[in-house]
Amino acid sequence: MTLRGVARCQGMSQNDDDPMLKPDGHRYDKPESRDTTVNKEIVYAVLGILVLVLAVLIATGTVRIFPG
C-alpha cells in the first residue's frame, strides 16, 4: 500500500462522527427530485389500478385462473 493509500484510509476513520452516516457506515442518499417522486407516484397508481382491475376480473369469473 502506498503512502497515499494509508493517508486515505486514516482520513476515512475521521468521518465516523459524521451525522450523515447510517449505522451501517453508508451515507444517506440525497433527496429525490420532485419529478422523480411524481413519476414514481404515477407508476404506483397505474400498477395499483391494474391489480385492482385484474382482481375484479378474477372475482367476477371473466378471467379464469383454474380451467375446468
Report on the structure:
The protein is mainly α and about 70 residues long. The chain has one domain (about 5-60). Helix content is about 55%, strand content about 0%. The chain has helices at about 5-15, 35-60. The longest helix has 27 residues, at about 35-60. The chain is elongated, with a radius of gyration of 25 Å.
Outline of the structure:
Helix content is 56%, strand content 0%.
Low-pLDDT ranges: none
What about the largest sheet? none
Give the distance, in angstroms, between the N- and C-terminal Cα atoms: 69 Å
* Radius of gyration, CA atoms, in whole angstroms: 25 Å
Topology as H/E string? HH
Helix fraction bin:
55-70%
Q: Which word captures the global form?
A: elongated
Structural class: mainly alpha
By DSSP (H or I, 4+ residues per run), the number of helices equals 2
Strand content: under 5%
Please give the domain count: 1
- Tell how many strands the DSSP assignment holds: 0
Mean pLDDT: 79
Search tags:
mainly alpha; single chain; elongated; 68 residues
